[in-house]
Amino acid sequence: DAGVTQSPTHLIKTRGQQVTLRCSPISGHKSVSWYQQVLGQGPQFIFQYYEKEERGRGNFPDRFSARQFPNYSSELNVNALLLGDSALYLCASSSHGGGNQPQHFGDGTRLSIL
Amino acid sequence: KQEVTQIPAALSVPEGENLVLNCSFTDSAIYNLQWFRQDPGKGLTSLLLIQSSQREQTSGRLNASLDKSSGRSTLYIAASQPGDSATYLCAPNSGNTPLVFGKGTRLSVIA
Questions:
Q1: Which of A16, A36, B23, B103 is exposed most, by the fewest CB atoms within 10 A?
Q2: Portion 35-54 of B in contact with A at CB < 8 A
């Protein structure tokens, strides 16, 4: 079975532009979470979605938004990009939103802002 | 608010050594704790998940222990190999809150 897939793998944007990152969870998984990882740090939580509803939001500005589709795939959108948005963006899926389920991560999207 | 600390930040050992990575967390009200491996520029690979009711979990040369009451977990790697070189991250899971990560331990195993 395929794991969590993310696209694109790499992306280069300039300040002020907008970007959309995509994530397909493991088949049968209904919960998707997004994390941002800057160099040298652990991942920081951005959003969690379960059954197309937002379950949680981290301490990120309103420039960050996300949604989950009926097939449980998800998109993360970032508007008005800043240099500080350069990071590895990770998507994780789990079978449901409960805390006793393991999280499975994709390979991430490397976003570079020039 | 959950805070996670991993010690040491970096570790370099010769091939064949046994080693221990440490993880401490401030909120002991957790469901489980996951250990992950991350290769440079890559995503996270789940190594072990240890439930709050368990004391230990083993997978091959890896053994994770959990002392929930003291807020500590250790990852023991036996007979280390150069292929074990990576960053190791721990993440306690408190249920309806997201995973909280430490900064990780960067491991280098020298052949």
A1: A16
A2: 36, 41-46, 49, 51
